[in-house]
Amino acid sequence: MDPVSHAVIGRALVAAVRPHDSSERGLAAAAVLGALSPDVDFLLMPVGWDVYLRAHAVGTHSLLGALVTGVGSGFIVRMVVRRTSLRTLMVAGVIGACSHLLADLAAGARVRPAWPIPGPIVSAPLVAMGDPWTVAILFVGAIAMWRARERLQSAARATLLVLTLFLALRRCGNGA
Questions:
Q1: What's the burial of 153, exposed, middle or buried (CB within 10 Å: 0-12/13-18/19+)?
Q2: Where are the alpha helices (DSSP H) in the chain?
């Protein structure tokens, strides 16, 4: 899935589970950075595309990797935003990182979620990267969340509900 979609989904998930509290500065940043953080493995691309592709299915794209990159995202945001607790920022980062894994699975990525424990490579291809319907849902959702600051949680939940219903319909339509 593309980085913008990852960012919107991560932000929506954190907003959906956390009541809006203006004293929690940095929450959005931690969620977005966390949602983008599993792709830190892009640093392996210069080493070789085959190395990058093998690493992409494990490591940062596992539950352990999401935990590590999400916690790291919380730490990074905490260096800039001092008023919010580190724990809160780390939780937002981990939720964002886990949303990345779910979004990649829905876009057909092949990941090994239990890595480093041996286990199956899983994939749930429901949409292609850049799917226009998915992009449209997330675009409208991002605008709704931005415009509805006082009703951020409701806008985030509505965005995730519409996206989930769309993905469920795609699953039914694929005969899966």
A1: middle
A2: 3-17, 27-36, 49-56, 63-80, 86-106, 132-147, 152-173
Is residue 21 classed as helix, strand or coil in its secondary structure?
Answer: coil
Q: 14, 80, 68, 7: which is closest to 41 by C-alpha?
A: 68
- CA atoms 37, 41, 42, 43: torsion sign: positive
Interatomic CA distance for residues 89 and 150, integer angstroms: 21
Neighbouring residues of 151: CB distance < 8 A, sequence distance ≥ 6: none
Domain boundaries, the chain: 3-173
pLDDT in tens, 130-172: 889 999 999 999 999 988 877 899 999 999 999 999 999 887 8
| Cα-based distances in Å from 91 to 95, 96, 122, 145, 171 | 6, 9, 25, 20, 30
User: Using an 8 Å Cβ cutoff, are 88 and 132 in contact?
Assistant: no
Q: Residue 3 corresponds to which tokens in the numbers above? A: 């980085």
SS3 (DSSP) at 122: strand
| Cβ within 8 Å of residue 49, ≥6 positions away | none
pTM, full prediction: 0.87
